[in-house]
Amino acid sequence: MKNRSQKSQKRRILTVALLFLLLVYTISFIYYISKVQPIESREDLDSKQLIDQIEDRNKKLQEEIKALEVSRNALKDQYEEIKLMNLSLQQKIKQREAAYRVEVENNLVDILTMDPGVIVDLRYATEDNFMKYQAYPDNSRALLRRETAIKLIRASEIFKEDGYTLKIWDAYRPLSVQQIMWDHSPIPGYVADPSRGSNHNRGAAVDITLVDGEGNELEMPTGFDDFTEKAARDYDHHTAEAKKNMDYMTQVMVNCGFKGIRTEWWHFKDVDSINYPLLDVGLDSFY
């Protein structure tokens, strides 16, 4: 009887021990589920957010790189443009230096460098002339011998004081162009024989008119290069206004050292022109 009681007691103790172990295991499992596992989930969540942040940052860096590449390309284009501009400028400087040497060698000056207010409208650099032919290159400049230019500037200053602006239709003319004009001359006697040359070929003659304060040419006997008797200074049927303007312009030019010719009211030569040599330096040498 006693042995049975002892065995029964051992089984109860073993059962209680097993139940206790099962309870401990259950509690441990519940703790793992409720504590350890959520921590791992938060770590996973933090890792994903970090990855997203890195990807966003990488995306922004890629965009910044593209923007920098665009800026770099723009700067590269600007650099190339500056190189071309610099090359062009260097060429212009060389051309101007060469032109200046030609001016000095031939004692010719650009009127506009002495009086920027003068209007230059070189008709032979266009087709708007009696030949209907462009005899001068584009961008030709109005050149005169220095001595003649000084006299013309004096006249220009007087015109300005009286409210007028000097307008130049022709100045220095290469001798080779004189031949072209001679070949195209519709009436003998109106164009100087190139074998003798013109005072234009010496840089000592100028074809001019006057402009008023509103930019309108004053009324004169005719237009430029009119080879009719109406262009003559002694024509009997000029309007009173045209004759008054022609006489005024002529008087100023004469007082400043010029002389007109009978057949062309617009033409004036330096009274000292015979002292200067004929020239055949192309106008493209003065760019």
Could you walk me through the main structural features you see in this protein, from its secondary elements to its overall organization?
Helix 3 crosses helix 5. By secondary structure, the chain is of the alpha+beta class. The chain has a domain at about 110-285: 2-Layer Sandwich (Muramoyl-pentapeptide Carboxypeptidase, domain 2), CATH 3.30.1380. About 55% of the residues lie in helices and about 10% in strands. The chain starts with a helix and ends in a 17-residue tail after the last strand. The mean pLDDT is about 85. It has helices at about 1-105, 110-115, 145-160, 175-185, 240-255; strands at about 110, 120, 145, 165-170, 205-210, 260, 265-270. The strands form two sheets. Strands 2-4-5-7-6 form a five-stranded mixed β-sheet, covered by helices on one side.
Secondary structure elements and pairings:
Blueprint (H helix, E strand, L loop, with lengths): L1 H105 L1 E3 H4 L4 E2 L22 E3 H16 L3 E6 L4 H10 L20 E7 L28 H16 L2 E3 L6 E4 L17
Parallel strand pairs: 2-4
Antiparallel strand pairs: 1-3, 4-5, 5-7, 6-7
